[in-house]
Structures are given as C-alpha cells and as structure tokens.
Amino acid sequence: MRRFLEVTGFLLTVFGVCGVVRELTGGWFSFMGATRFLTENVGVLEGREVFANIVLAVLGLVLMIVSERVGKDRVEKS
Predict the structure, then answer these.
(1) Which of 15, 23, 35, 75 has its CB surrounded by the most CB atoms within 10 Å?
(2) What does the buried/exposed string (b/e) look like for 22-61 if buried means 16 or more CB atoms within 10 Å of the residue's CB?
(3) Contact 18/29 with Cβ under 8 angstroms?
C-alpha cells in the first residue's frame, strides 16, 4: 500500500507541475500533455486550468506525505 501511495503521489505531482508549466508558457511546454485531457474535458474547470494543475500537484504531495506516515505506523506496531 505504501509503494502504491508513493508512486501515485509522485505521478500526480509531476503531472501537476508539468501542467502548470504548460499553462504558464502558453502550451509551448507540451511534455506530459496528459494533464490537458484532465483539465480541458471537464466543463467545471474551463478557464481554471492553472488552479486545477496546482491542486493536482498539492494532492500528489499530500499522498506522498501520507505514504510516509503509513510506513511509520506499521513499523511502530510491529
């Protein structure tokens, strides 16, 4: 479970940061264009792409922090 949370958190962070850079450069930085599909196809997020990508990056960081806590709890209980 810990490894899954770490990998998912890392990927979300990378996607979020790449999405923010892509939006701030006007689409010039097209690496990891997968975030475009996440933000442009959801009607609620139209016009809020930078905010949505920042939320993705923060969510990824939170998942990585939670994965560290999950690992520490299991070591203490053993």
Answers:
(1) 35
(2) bbeeeeeeeebeebbebbeeeeeeeeebeebbbebbeebe
(3) yes
**What's the one-letter identity of residue 29?**
F
Q: Which of 20-24, 32-36, 66-70, 74-78 has the lowest mean pLDDT?
A: 74-78
Beta strands in 1-78 (DSSP E): none
pTM: 0.79
Amino acid, single-letter form, for residue 73 = D
What sign results for the dihedral spanned by CA atoms 62, 65, 71, 74?
A: negative
Q: Which of 23, 20, 16, 24 is nearest to 60 (CA)?
A: 16
